[in-house]
Amino acid sequence: MNKKIKTLIFIIMALVIAILVLYPNKFNRYVHRQIRTYKTKPKGVLENVKFQKIELGKSAEGQYTSLIIGPDHKLYANSIDGKIKRFLIQPSGELKLEHTFKTFGDEQRLTIGLVFDPASTRDSLVVWTTFSETSSGWIDLPNAPKNIDKTIWAGRLSRLQLSSTSDSILKNELVLTDLPRFGPNNENFANSIVFGPDRKLYFGQGANTGMGWCDCEENQEPSREALLSATILTLELNKLPNVLPLSVKTIDGGGIYEPYNENAPLKIYATGIRNPYDLVWHSNGELYTTINGSGGDENTPSSDPMSEQYTPPYSKIHYKGPKNIPAITNAHPDQNDFMARVKKNGYYGHPNPLRAEYVLNYGDESLDNFEYNSIAPDENFRGFTYNFGPHVAPTGVIEYRSDNFQGKLQGCLIVARMGKNDLIILKPGGDKNDIIQDYDGSKLGLQINGGPLDLVEDKKTGNIYVSGFGSNKIILFHPTEKQSDMITLKNTDKSKSINISGKKLYQENCQICHGANAKGGLGPNLADDQWIYGKEKIYYIIRNGSENGKMTAWKDKLTNNQIKSVEKYILSL
Predict the structure, then answer these.
(1) Lowest mean pLDDT: which of 40-44, 76-80, 395-399?
(2) pTM, rounded to two decimals
(3) Which of 7, 73, 135, 344 is most buried by a 10 A CB count?
(4) Each residue of 232-245: b (16+ CB within 10 Å) or e?
């Protein structure tokens, strides 16, 4: 064997041994994460299914958190700053802005959920929306309230009646106040809304912690779970009091609302759902929701009354489980993202000691920390119907109803994967209506730069509209069964600049985690001098991802020059 080759082999082996000896945890986490990513890649194949991606014109620009089609067959888009925009859907699929409703007048509120009341008609347009009184690292809202006490319970639910002929809001009624939004960096919210077949209103309420206990990170305010956090909540409209709004602050926050009262309008439907961005009642009768899992190096609670990380359950909850479930500090690895087929009173893995829920996900199977060895899942843990893998960030979800492609997609769930910049197709079936097959949407043309957040289907045509959080626009995906189905819109953006600025790339790909001003959100602050790996490794971390797996690799999505542009922009801050 050539001497140079032998020397090279020796050097490689020495490096591998050094990594195994000096950095075993980092190495194991890296390998573990790569295996998880490989195992959870979609494996199904759909023949003769293709969508044409069409970037709509300037009228469709904006950061939209919810997209719905109303009883008037117009598209309504909930802007993150609180405005509701109504678009005419042209025969070509193009959107023409018709009216903009200013829900908060000249002020702004971070707004997510939007749904039409079942009683709405084309002439009586009643919508429900969720929003927050506090700001967020997601986006900088210049006219939003400043210096608000972060300990307030800032979640809200409103009901509005929109004019069918103008931009007037005929009625704007605040229905619920004091939903528990007060966690670290105030990132998790009262999320998207749906009405069930029982005509009750359902929405996801985000968690206040990473893994059920105070995250206790530097510069974060103390936080804990609330009785209503990390849940699917359901509202019975006929039980609402005559005088509104109704405060739903529970006793753990100093309030008096009792969600376990039989006559309570707002009740807990299911628990342990960390951050359910969107949910859908499927035609098969099942409720499905997307779940964003926690990052690693976070903390779990204990069931041991002698532990410092123990919180007594709410007085109406009588815990009969084991008292030896340990508190884990710096739990790892980071958890996968999931989809749940949600059942009433089920628990789905995010601990909340106020509800006597102490075990994270599958217990021993979910954590590498030796303290969790032999820890069994909570007896009420229902498991998940689909595993997206790590750091996928599933958000919006719909059931595809159109019979395009000979019905191949009919009844499938289509999910926006913000972390992958694409859509994924999931097929439910079997005795339990679990997910039995998955398909990679990017292979079907369903790919979008800039973090897809929500989506909606025009059931008349099968067109799919997707809101790009980072790209700041609505994208149209048009089903093309044959070449003649391809369309060209007059007012679409016909070209893209090859030399995209670092700031623009940051907004499209990084802002969702690191904040509008790079001052931190789900990810760390990039605008200060506190760097985990040092400023000299910015390019390397963007390209290859971080060692702890929290930061994903962008080498397959951005060119080397684009990564350098992002690096230059970050350093300019």
Answers:
(1) 40-44
(2) 0.85
(3) 135
(4) bbbbebeebeeeeb
Lowest mean pLDDT among 60-69, 440-449, 544-553: 544-553
Long-range contacts of 517-521 (CB under 8 A, 24+ apart): 517/140, 517/573, 518/570, 518/573, 519/137, 520/137, 520/185, 521/136, 521/137, 521/138, 521/185, 521/187
Pairing state between β 169-179 and 246-247:
parallel
For 232-272, how does the pLDDT look when each residue is reduced to its tens digit (9 = 90+)? 999 999 999 999 999 999 999 899 999 999 999 999 999 99
Q: What is the DSSP letter of 357?
A: B
Average pLDDT over every residue of 332-341: 94
C-beta atoms surrounding 23 within 10 Å: 13
What fold is seen in the domain 497-573? Cytochrome Bc1 Complex; Chain D, domain 2 (1.10.760)
Question: Hunting for tokens 């009750």 — which residue is that?
Answer: 200
Mean pLDDT of the chain: 85
Q: Taking phi first (over 0 means left), then psi (-120 to 50 degrees means alpha), and beta for anything else, what does residue 466 get?
A: beta
| SS3 category, 451 | coil
pLDDT at 154: 86
Which residues, 6 or more positions from 141, have their beta carbon under 8 angstroms from its beta carbon?
Answer: 81, 108, 109, 110, 135
Express each pLDDT in 106-160 by its tens digit: 888 889 999 999 999 999 999 999 998 876 666 666 666 665 565 678 899 999 9
Please name the residue that has the structure tokens 């159109």.
Answer: 402
Distance CA 24, CA 520 (A): 29
Cis peptide before 197 (omega within 30 of 0): no
CA 570/CA 259 separation, integer angstroms: 45
CB atoms < 10 A from the CB of 281, how many? Answer: 17
Residues 6+ apart with CB under 8 A from 6: none
User: d(Cα 569, Cα 573) in Å, to the nearest integer?
Assistant: 7
Residue type, 448: I
- Return the exposure string of 337-358: e unless at least 16 CB atoms fall within 10 Å of the residue's CB, then b: bbbbbbeeebbbbbbbbbbbbb
Q: How many alpha carbons lie under 13 Å from residue 102 in its C-beta half-sphere?
A: 6
* Least confident span in 203-212, 249-258, 353-362, 513-522: 513-522
pLDDT score of 217: 65
CB 446 within 8 A of CB 51: yes
Q: How far apart are CA 175 and CA 128, in angstroms?
A: 9
**What percent of the chain is helix, strand and coil (3-state, nearest 5)?**
20, 30, 55
Q: How high is the pLDDT of residue 231?
A: 97
